[in-house]
Design goal:
Length: 490
């Protein structure tokens, strides 16, 4: 039987195995906290791997130059970042543009918040904190009590209180001012609550990613029929937000803060607070935190939604391209490579050359065909049929529905213009016989005018075209004039 002291001790041991507390009780915890908080900010939650190594290296050089070399760990900035990633404080991620970045894990975000609160202003048991506690307990009791009459009584009491307040305001016309000290306590309480949000959002995103890894691992090891795999994993991919407890809690909170109108109202309320004179007693950092509450909420929402989209994409892609046999072959190959490295590295010397694989192994084939097949056909193709282009001449009706009669249009244009150097295209078309007044002949006439050079006017010309079947259609176009004869013929 476990005693009370032993149970408390085992619980504390499990708590300190959490990466967040592990970070805080390490020997170099002040260095880790300071470097992570300086590299990763609210404006830059993701940092490219190369930039992070450079910034951490510069910070280490500055600390050594300031005389803190004895308190710093050995190793390069790259080694430190890798150690932090292995400890669960940093998360490596590849973005859509193939850029690898570091992000703070939920454990690191929580550790930075704890360190920030411990090093900042001391939390006070204020009226605002007690009221927040009482309101939360009251809301919990109201939601948990299924008694209808009790709920009606509580709501009726609240309505009477609000009506009394409205009556007082209408009677006096004044709003009771709140003491600045109390407003200051309420602002500090708001900041205390807001500092918890980044770690909460990070935990939701990491729980979704952990579910994604579990699904992909199970899929690679699955031996069930493909249809069952598709149905189960596509369903989980579409409902990743409901697959984890953190995701379900976030979905409930999203109904409160996910409305753009609610965020706009929050922004207006914060502007009202920051315009009050009591905020001058807040520090510059506290005023900045109040001003950026909406942006931090939006960043947290975007972080969770990005993790959700990536999980859905990875799971769907894995299902589409899932090949258990190929996956097992790849796993076996990687396992053989790791086994070979483990056997070779202990006996290898530093700088020892490795003989590269210069060519792929040759396939062992018993016999190859030595002569190609005969590409010539077994017999010659049939002779081509003689064709006389003049035997099948289209009849008059078919020619009437054909293209423009350029030669006849050219002759008509010369006869219509006579000695005049230029004529209007619309007038020439209107004077043509019905056989040359088809819609297609109007295009042909405009083409001839374009080749000879035409002059546009500001007027609109109207012409009636006649189709071979006798139907008419009116066209409108910008009036143009053209030369009656081609200059090359003169």
């Amino acid at each position: 039987m476990i005693t009370r002291a032993e149970g408390a001790y085992l619980g504390a041991v499990r708590a300190f195995q959490n990466p967040m507390l592990d970070l805080l009780h390490k020997r170099h915890a002040p260095l880790v906290v300071s470097l992570l908080s300086s590299v990763f900010t609210a404006e830059r939650p993701a940092v490219p791997v190369a930039d992070a190594h450079t910034e951490v290296g510069d910070a280490l050089d500055q600390l050594r130059a300031a005389g803190h070399g004895d308190d710093l760990p050995t190793g390069s900035a790259r080694d430190l970042c890798r150690q932090w990633a292995d400890a669960g404080w940093l998360v490596r991620q590849v973005l859509d543009d193939d850029v690898e970045v570091y992000r703070l894990s939920a454990h690191a975000v929580g550790a930075l918040e704890v360190a920030g609160r411990a090093g900042g202003a001391r939390a006070r048991v204020s009226q605002s904190r007690v009221r927040t506690l009482l309101e939360a307990v009251e809301r919990l009791a109201l939601d948990a009590d299924p008694d209808v009459m009790v709920r009606i009584a509580r709501l009726d009491t609240e309505v009477k209180r609000l009506q009394a307040e409205i009556a007082r305001l209408e009677r006096t016309g004044t709003v009771e001012e709140v003491d600045e000290e109390e407003l200051l306590e309420e602002a500090e309480n708001v900041l205390h609550l807001v500092r918890e949000l980044p770690a909460d959002f990070a935990r939701v995103a990491e729980s979704i990613k952990a579910m994604q890894r579990d699904v992909v691992t199970a899929l690679r090891q699955d031996q069930r029929p493909t249809g069952d795999v598709l149905r189960e994993y596509l369903q989980r991919g579409e409902q990743v937000m409901e697959s984890t407890s953190e995701g379900r809690a976030f979905a409930g909170a999203l109904r409160l803060i996910g409305d753009p109108q609610r965020l706009d109202e929050l922004s207006e309320q914060l502007d009202t607070v920051l315009r009050h004179r009591f905020t001058r007693r807040l520090g510059q950092q506290q005023r900045t935190e109040l001003r950026e509450i909406v942006r931090r909420v939006e960043q947290g929402l975007d972080q969770v939604f990005t993790a959700q989209r990536e999980a859905s994409y990875v799971i769907t892609a894995q299902v589409r391209h899932h090949d258990p046999l190929r996956d097992r072959q790849v796993d076996d190959l990687l396992r053989d490579v790791m086994t070979g490295l483990q056997a070779w590295v202990p006996g290898a010397r530093r700088g020892q050359a490795v003989e590269p694989l210069r060519r792929l192994p040759v396939a062992e084939v018993d016999h190859l065909r030595q002569t190609p097949g005969d590409l010539r056909p077994p017999q010659a193709p049939d002779a081509l049929t003689d064709w006389d282009d003049g035997t099948d001449v289209p009849d008059g009706d078919a020619r009437a529905w054909g293209g423009p009669h350029y030669a006849d249009l050219d002759v008509h244009l010369a006869l219509f213009g006579g000695d005049a150097p230029e004529v209007a295209v619309a007038a020439a078309f209107a004077a043509a016989p019905d056989a040359l007044r088809r819609p297609v002949d109007l295009l042909g006439l405009l083409e001839i005018a374009h080749q000879r050079g035409m002059t546009e006017t500001d007027e609109i010309a109207f012409v009636d075209a006649v189709r071979p079947d006798g139907s008419r259609r009116r066209f409108a176009f910008g009036a143009v004039t053209t030369r009656t004869r081609d200059e090359s013929d003169e």
